[in-house]
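hey so u asked for the seq, here:
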Amino acid sequence: MIIRPEQANDQDAIASIVAAAFAQAAHSRQTEPAIIAALRDAGALTLSLVAVGAGEIVGHAAFSPVMIDGRDVGWHGLGPLAVRPDRQGQGIGAALVREGLDRLRASGAAGCVVLGEPDYYRRFGFRNDDALRYEGAPAAYFMSLSFTGHSPDGRVEYHPGFGAE
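ran it, structure tokens below
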């Protein structure tokens, strides 16, 4: 398996994988493909990585800038993260997350936030942080990872593309 940046001809495969991965997710409004398209159209995908196995795209991870109290402080959000259902549980999602976090660090990003399953994301160093708040979600599921050893204090806002339908 290789992980590489998204290419223009990957968009349909990404949308298909993301839709399939979230189809049975109780917390999903089934808008994840539209979110990725909106972020892409707005030029707000800091990283859009695909996992390719046996010549096919089997996973995708999106990273986009977040604002904290209305300011750009060099932090990003991870998500959506998706792996084709028949390939889940094989470490593909973990490989995408690790590669994305490594690339963010190398680019000089200050940190990353994620809204997701705590038991899954803690393995990458994400932790709950009372200083960073995201409205509308249980606090236990919103986590952060500072690359600098310092976390800002404030309310996190994802890109407006996350409102896509």
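The first strand starts at residue 2 and ends at 5. The chain has a mean pLDDT of 95.
lmk if thats what u needed
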